[in-house]
């Protein structure tokens, strides 16, 4: 048994005055839009009206000196850690493709180890490294140091935080960069080599610029993640944004208001980073995004 | 074709060898051994003895909501021996736990622990997430504006240093110019350090370098690894650490900063609960359980004659 | 041969368990245009890639203009050359690929000037001037500032030829240069290659374009199963093949 499909008869066809289609009215979607709009308005009103949000306190502490200092520390940690992560990550990614089995093995081990342990543990290790290695130096096994330095002096607490975050980040970056390098077709390397370009020149002028287009979005993601991840450095006593805010609310008990202050700052910085990322994507997308666009 | 010896391989081999030699040399250093050191057990030798029976009159003093639910919800940051910490099985133990058990025995109320980092307790009390905080709260005028504190012990701030006291700390002004570590949110982190800074300023000495860390365990670690010269904490904790890890730490007995009473904290509006708790503590003092607990932990000299609600103390 | 520019001796190459080249001997003179013919899997691309050391032979060697691209002879053995040496020798051999392999993130002009500037140290202005001349020669002078993605396949391949020529090679290798092109674009590329041949460039071309092989190439070499089955003047090999397998292959292709 078949359902009757309405057929268009000749009279109807002749009676059509305008062949352009009339858009179907989507009732369900309209209802949904109204409901969502109402919820948004309700939420906004609640934000404004509810006294527990303590907006006056938020306003007062938003630009408080301690909070601002915390913001600066968070930014510094993010930038330094990402710098280390990126440079070391590229090096590790290149090592992973090296001819030497030892080089490949070292790179693999590094990535496995630093991705496999929590960043909090790594930060704690660098912060309290002196408990394992009171002095760092070069010497003979079982014998005295030829030259050595006090660990706490060589690795001050801020440096320990940057190292803990940066070395961990390098492991993740290495995989992102490696993915980007692999995304460049092997024909590009072959063409560069046949022209006489050496290994470094090929990487620098041909491979890496093309890999960047694939690498930038995940790196942007990592950057934004790092911004929040820096808060783990609390545990070794570095006063980042979250740490500064914690000290304030431990004193004045306005926990929600101060956490809102921190959240607003994190959101603002994240927005800034997102904008920066889109700029970078546009710059590296030059030429490559056109591949296939203008072609039939 | 015969393979050419890779340059990269050689360089890495040299680097790896140096690294191994370096760390081997480090780990052969005898000082590193001391960090692991001999640790004595922190648990008291005598078992907890609670004298006295369940007293309905005491129970009647507690707020109705608590009597109905039959549960007293207590916040604790179990990283602070001997006040509140965990035994190897993970159970919360310490002076606080003993008193909680005693309160339970005397009132019939069940005790439920909520673990909260110390820096979040003030906010948590205000938000009524728990009935009371059982950590030893130092009394300050500032705190009394937002909390009730039921004092049951004499306390104060002591100074913990690394074994050997190489910095030669003997009096408060010796702390000027030093790196001083304390737990975030504590009386030491806030009031004591502030006053210390003011003192150092007045004496024309260099400022104290504060190192605030959220967990007391890491505060101890900071001192042990030399990140800080000195740790400030409640006198009971300092004495405990010096006793339990004598190869690592020592207390500076000549310094007792800001001696004052310490107690249990409740939200400001929970006056009935505060009074009930004070009455219970006084009952424990009367029947001798109080003295037994303090004696068990070796802090009998911190005893007070009676528990009070919000007594006045110097700032 | 009087002026041999390429000498292949006893070339063997396996990929894993598969032996692709089973002993190739071939000599190519300066100015010759040689076509490599054969079915897929016959080893013609592999042989081409051994010439500029993109593939490393298991046994045997290839001499280009008297030099071993991938090695140095010492004590009766062939020792693997240093990467820098290989790069330098490769720069004297130009190669054009089936997939063009232009650098998509650079303009056409930059594609052509990259190697002369970075490898030979030519000044930027001089390199650009030569590049424009080369692009004119392949008929793409107006496209110097375009990106490869904006060009048709035929145009891209012509740029690739210009790019290879910018290094002033002594020898040009072509690996199926028109196989990836739409039929109507093949002609423009073959025209450029014909001009190149006429100018005296030595060329080795792997191709299926029989018209080109017959009319432009001086010699044709037919490979089958990793061995050279037949070779000789292209007119003769393609027009009147002597070997059974050559005939069978050509019957399918022509």
In short:
With 296 residues, chain A is mainly alpha-helical. Chain A has helices spanning 10-14, 27-49, 55-62, 65-96, 101-116, 119-127, 151-154, 157-183, 186-194, 199-229, 241-252, 255-284; strands at 135-139, 145-150. Chain A contains 12 helices and 2 strands.
Give a written overview of the molecule.
The complex is a heterotrimer of chains A (296), B (315) and C (254). In chain A, 70% of the residues lie in helices and 4% in strands. Chain A is mainly α and 296 residues long. Chain A has a two-stranded antiparallel ribbon. Chain B has two domains: 56-154 and 261-301, Periplasmic binding protein-like II (D-Maltodextrin-Binding Protein, domain 2, 3-Layer(aba) Sandwich), CATH 3.40.190.10; 156-258, D-Maltodextrin-Binding Protein, domain 2, CATH 3.40.190.10. In chain B, 39% of the residues lie in helices and 22% in strands. In chain B, strands 1, 4, 5, 6, 7, 8, 9, 10, 11 and 12 form a ten-stranded mixed β-sheet that branches. In chain B, strand 2 and strand 3 (92-93) form a beta hairpin. The model of chain B is unreliable at 1-6 and 22-38 (pLDDT under 50). Chain C is 37% helix and 29% strand. Chain C has helices at residues 44-51, 83-90, 108-119, 124-137, 153-165, 183-198, 210-215, 234-239, 244-253; strands at residues 4-15, 18-29, 33-38, 59-64, 67-68, 71-74, 77-80, 93-96, 171-175, 202-206, 219-224, 227-233. In chain C, the strands form three sheets. In chain C, strands 8-9-10-3-11-12 form a six-stranded mixed β-sheet, with helices on both faces. A four-stranded antiparallel β-sheet of chain C has the order 2-1-4-5, with helices on one face. In chain C, strands 6-7 form a two-stranded antiparallel ribbon. Chains in contact: A-B, A-C, B-C. The interface between A and B is large, with 46 and 47 residues.
Q: Residue share in helices of chain B?
A: 25-40%
Which structural category fits the helices and strands of chain C?
Answer: alpha/beta
Distance between the termini of chain B: 85 Å
The structure class of chain B reads alpha/beta
CATH class of the largest domain in chain B: Alpha Beta
Set down the secondary structure blueprint:
The complex is a heterotrimer of chains A (about 300), B (about 325) and C (about 250).
Chain A: H1 10-14, H2 27-49, H3 55-62, H4 65-96, H5 101-116, H6 119-127, E1 135-139, E2 145-150, H7 151-154, H8 157-183, H9 186-194, H10 199-229, H11 241-252, H12 255-284
Antiparallel strand pairs in A: 1-2
Chain B: H1 7-27, H2 30-36, H3 56-60, H4 64-69, E1 71-76, E2 85-86, E3 92-93, H5 95-107, E4 110-115, H6 121-126, E5 132-138, H7 141-144, E6 147-162, E7 179-183, H8 187-202, E8 209-213, H9 216-224, E9 230-234, H10 235-244, E10 249-251, E11 257-267, H11 271-287, H12 289-296, E12 308-309
Parallel strand pairs in B: 1-4, 1-5, 7-8, 7-9
Antiparallel strand pairs in B: 2-3, 5-11, 6-9, 6-10, 6-11, 6-12
Helix pairs in contact in B: 5-11, 5-12
Chain C: E1 4-15, E2 18-29, E3 33-38, H1 44-51, E4 59-64, E5 67-68, E6 71-74, E7 77-80, H2 83-90, E8 93-96, H3 108-119, H4 124-137, H5 153-165, E9 171-175, H6 183-198, E10 202-206, H7 210-215, E11 219-224, E12 227-233, H8 234-239, H9 244-253
């Amino acid at each position: 048994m078949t359902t009757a499909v309405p057929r268009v008869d000749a009279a109807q066809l002749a009676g059509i005055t305008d062949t352009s289609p009339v858009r179907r009215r989507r009732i369900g979607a309209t209802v949904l839009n109204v409901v969502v709009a109402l919820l948004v308005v309700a939420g906004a009103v609640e934000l404004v009206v509810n006294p527990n949000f303590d907006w006056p306190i938020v306003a007062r502490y938003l630009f408080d000196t301690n909070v601002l200092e915390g913001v600066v520390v968070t930014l510094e940690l993010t930038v330094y850690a990402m710098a280390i992560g990126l440079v070391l990550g590229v090096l590790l990614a290149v090592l992973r493709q090296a001819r030497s089995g030892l080089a490949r093995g070292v790179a693999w081990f590094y990535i496995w180890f630093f991705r496999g342990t929590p960043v909090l543990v790594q930060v704690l290790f660098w912060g309290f490294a002196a408990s394992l290695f009171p002095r760092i130096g070069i010497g003979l096994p079982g014998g005295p140091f030829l030259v050595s330095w006090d660990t706490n002096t060589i690795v001050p607490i801020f440096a320990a935080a940057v190292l803990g975050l940066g070395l961990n980040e390098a492991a993740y970056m290495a995989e992102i960069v490696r993915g980007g390098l692999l995304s460049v077709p092997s024909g590009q390397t072959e063409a560069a080599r046949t022209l006489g370009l050496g290994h470094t020149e090929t990487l620098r002028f041909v491979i890496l610029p093309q890999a960047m287009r694939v690498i930038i979005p995940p790196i942007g993601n990592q950057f934004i993640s790092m911004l929040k991840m820096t808060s783990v450095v609390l545990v070794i006593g570095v006063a980042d944004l979250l740490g500064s805010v914690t000290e304030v609310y431990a004193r004045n008990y306005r926990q929600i208001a101060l956490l809102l202050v921190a959240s607003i700052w994190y959101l603002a910085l994240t927005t800034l980073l997102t904008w920066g990322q889109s700029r970078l994507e546009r710059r590296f997308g030059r030429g490559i995004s056109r591949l296939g666009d203008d072609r039939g | 074709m015969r393979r050419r010896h890779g340059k990269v391989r050689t360089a890495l081999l040299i680097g790896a060898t140096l690294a191994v030699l370096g760390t081997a040399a480090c780990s052969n250093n005898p000082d590193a051994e001391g960090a692991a050191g001999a640790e004595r057990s922190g648990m008291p030798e005598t078992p907890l003895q609670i004298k006295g029976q369940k007293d309905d009159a005491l129970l009647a003093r507690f707020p109705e909501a608590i009597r109905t639910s039959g549960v007293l919800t207590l916040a604790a940051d179990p990283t602070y021996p001997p006040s509140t910490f965990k035994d190897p099985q993970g159970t919360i133990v310490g002076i606080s736990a003993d008193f909680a058990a005693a309160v339970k025995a005397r009132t019939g109320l069940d005790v439920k622990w909520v673990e909260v980092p110390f820096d979040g307790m003030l906010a948590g009390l205000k938000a009524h997430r728990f009935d009371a905080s059982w950590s030893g709260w130092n009394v300050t005028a500032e705190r009394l504006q937002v909390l009730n504190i039921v004092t049951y012990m004499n306390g104060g701030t002591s100074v913990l240093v690394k074994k050997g006291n190489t910095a030669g700390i003997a009096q408060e002004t010796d702390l000027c110019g030093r790196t001083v570590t304390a737990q975030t949110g504590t009386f030491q982190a806030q009031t004591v350090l502030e006053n210390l800074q003011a003192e150092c300023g007045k004496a024309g000495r260099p400022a104290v370098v504060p190192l605030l860390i959220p967990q007391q365990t890491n505060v101890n670690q900071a001192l042990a690894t030399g990140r800080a010269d000195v740790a400030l904490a409640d006198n009971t904790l300092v004495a405990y650490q010096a006793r339990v890890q004598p190869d690592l730490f020592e207390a500076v007995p000549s310094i007792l900063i800001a001696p004052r009473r310490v107690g249990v904290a409740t939200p400001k509006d929970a006056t009935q609960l505060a009074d009930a708790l004070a009455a219970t503590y006084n009952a424990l003092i009367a029947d001798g359980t109080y003295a037994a607990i303090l004696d068990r932990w070796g802090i009998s000299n911190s005893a007070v004659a009676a528990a009070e609600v919000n007594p006045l103390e110097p700032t | 041969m009087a002026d041999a520019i390429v000498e292949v001796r006893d070339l063997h190459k396996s990929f894993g368990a598969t032996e692709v080249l089973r002993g190739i001997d071939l000599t190519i003179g300066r100015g010759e245009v040689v076509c490599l013919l054969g079915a897929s899997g016959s080893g013609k691309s592999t042989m081409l890639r051994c010439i500029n050391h993109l593939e490393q032979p298991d046994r045997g060697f290839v001499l280009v203009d008297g030099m071993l691209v991938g090695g140095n002879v010492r004590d009766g053995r062939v020792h693997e050359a240093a990467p820098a040496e290989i790069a330098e020798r490769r720069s004297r051999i130009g190669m054009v690929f089936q997939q063009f392999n232009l650098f998509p993130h650079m303009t056409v002009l930059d594609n052509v000037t990259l190697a002369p500037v970075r490898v030979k140290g030519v000044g930027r202005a001089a390199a650009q001037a030569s590049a424009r001349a080369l692009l004119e020669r392949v008929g793409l002078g107006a496209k110097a500032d375009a990106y490869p993605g904006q060009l048709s396949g035929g145009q891209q391949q012509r740029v690739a030829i210009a790019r290879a020529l910018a290094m002033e090679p002594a020898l040009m290798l072509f690996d199926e240069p028109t196989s990836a092109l739409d039929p109507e674009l093949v002609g423009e590329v073959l025209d450029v290659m014909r001009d190149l041949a006429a100018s005296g460039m030595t060329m080795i071309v792997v191709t299926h374009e029989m018209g080109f092989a017959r009319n432009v190439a001086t010699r044709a070499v037919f490979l089958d199963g990793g061995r050279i089955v037949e070779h000789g003047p292209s007119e003769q090999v393609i027009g009147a093949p002597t070997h059974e397998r050559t005939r069978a292959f050509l019957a399918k292709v022509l």
